[in-house]
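Example record

Each entry pairs one chain with its bound ligand, LJYKPCYY.
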Amino acid sequence: MPRFAANLSLLFTEVPFLDRFAAAAACGFKGCEIQFPYLADANDVGDKAAMAGLKVAMFNAPPGDWAKGERGLAAVPGRQDEFRESLDLAIHYADFLDCDQIHIMAGVVPEEQWEEAFDVYLENLAYACDELAGEKLKVCIEPINPGDMPGYFLTRPDDALTVLDQLERKNLFILYDLYHAQITQGGITDFLEGNLDRIAHIQVAGVPGRNEPDALSELNYPYIYNLLDASGYKGWVGCEYKPRGKTETGLKWAREWLEK
Ligand SMILES: O=C(O)[C@H](O)C(=O)CO
Ligand SMILES: [Mg+2]
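Structure tokens for the complex follow.
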């Protein structure tokens, strides 16, 4: 049975952030993920997760100035110092949240800088992998579709494989978000079967609306969950979607899987 993690930045937004841990646990979740935990104190976040009995499976390193359109710094030329500093904050939260994997976002880069950005990306990720290896943390990179995030540097799962091949770091993995992957590349089953040892975390949402991963999605999720079970996938499956209405009402799709 896949282990589902509630994305507490998108689910249970009916209640304040720190109350979402208990709300997710009450619905049967054993794990959670958070896009950006930084507005809350790391100690408080860790306490709430522990009190609810939820494992924090994943969160993102600081993305730069989100309000100004920044979506990570790893591939952004000229921001290397800031990128390195941001890792300290991520490590601090990982410690308090008892989380062992961090998603590092590539960032938005103008097309004319893509060549330079690739070198910057490799250099920054190599640095991050080496720093985080000392803390026993995994680094994840996630291809994100450019419709949702225009100009985002890493969009295709095959490009993420190229980065892994180039860097050869033992703690560098793919965060395979099936919603983005279906939009940019497709071939979900083949990619999963061919690269399972390189995927540390999976996220799901309906395609194309990014709502509940249910029968209204073009992806056949029950098929995928059975495939993950059969293949021995041990990671978490993050529920990173925008509920159509109330979170709990929309969890009809999950009842069978959360109760198994
Ligand atoms: O948007 C996504 O799919 C990522 O997982 C994320 O957390 C950054 O927004
Ligand atoms: Mg995602």
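The two ends are 7 Å apart (CA to CA).
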